[in-house]
């Protein structure tokens, strides 16, 4: 049975990839740190060669954006050197690699949505290390797809939705930055997109390769996002708080973040016919799942 190796098994994306309905003839082999430490490039090579995998989805990453500023050796090992090792191993095995990247490769200076070939200029260590991963995969010789995504949220793991609900339960008002714009992404919707892509890559030698953007549709700011989270939470009898929109200058963090990281879907629509749904609708599914768990 063809098997797909998935890293980041316990992360948001890895969790949702394992929850997809896969074809009966496909097996998902999902590994996390305990099974495969991505800072060990020899272990990556050995894992990819351990059985005849049909493809690899590298969903693991060092995602602590602020911590990465002072922990850059680990961030670069996981986000750049590991993708390089996967690229080399996949090229040797003759199998496709799906690498996940981020809106934080952009500096945020553009007005409007970022296209896949727009110039990259990361503002911090996380974005720079993820860009390193992109470049390594692109030059590895492996047949590959790189999907940049943004603001990933789900009912599992660490993310903005869960942070807002947790903090909002204890406070009347929350200060949230209103001058950083982008597009939230449901990890489930991202997983469904990666499923479509990886199955095409496995079954069709002429499937589109290269770099694509996927997020949910619609632009927002973190402050508007927070307000919508509380609006939808309150509707379900969950925690709510008032959102006070603030400028980034009033929320100092170790890492700089892009002012606009909205991603254009033109490339993924043209190549794969994928049309993302609105982020509010995706958020509604996540809150349904979270509130069901609370009940
Ligand atoms: N989260 C977001 O907002 C965004 C994410 N992305 C990208 O999407 C992808 C998926 O992100 P997401 O699911 O949210 O990330 P998570 O932070 O939820 O999960 C990351 C996973 O990577 C694993 N990991 C970290 N270090 C290592 C290591 N040394 N060896 C093995 N595994 C390791 C973690 O394991 P453990 O749990 O054991 O630490 C965790 O399971 C990543 O490539 C990320 O860069 C892109 C844009 C936005
Ligand atoms: C908790 C909190 C955050 N913020 C701000 C900080 C930041 O600018 C923004 C979002 O906070 P986060 O900690 O979720 O941000 P961050 O960790 O930067 O999220 C990023 O993660 C990486 C992995 C990515 O690839 C990006 O696409 C993006 O999702 O909101 C507030 O203004 N008030 C608050 O109370
Ligand atoms: Mg964070």
UniProtKB/TrEMBL annotation:
An annotated Gene Ontology molecular function: dTDP-4-dehydrorhamnose reductase activity
Reported function: Catalyzes the reduction of dTDP-6-deoxy-L-lyxo-4-hexulose to yield dTDP-L-rhamnose.
Entry cofactors: Mg(2+)
Protein name per Swiss-Prot or TrEMBL: dTDP-4-dehydrorhamnose reductase
Region called Disordered, residue ranges: 234-259
RmlD-like substrate binding domain residues: 4-290
Catalytic activity: dTDP-beta-L-rhamnose + NADP(+) = dTDP-4-dehydro-beta-L-rhamnose + NADPH + H(+)
Keyword annotations: NADP, Oxidoreductase
Keyword Oxidoreductase: yes
Lineage of source species: Bacteria, Pseudomonadati, Pseudomonadota, Alphaproteobacteria, Sphingomonadales
GO biological process annotation, one example: dTDP-rhamnose biosynthetic process
Family: Belongs to the dTDP-4-dehydrorhamnose reductase family.
Cofactor binding, per record: Binds 1 Mg(2+) ion per monomer.
NCBIfam families: rmlD (TIGR01214)
Enzyme Commission number(s) from the entry: 1.1.1.133
Gene3D superfamilies: NAD(P)-binding Rossmann-like Domain, UDP-galactose 4-epimerase, domain 1
Involved pathway(s): Carbohydrate biosynthesis; dTDP-L-rhamnose biosynthesis
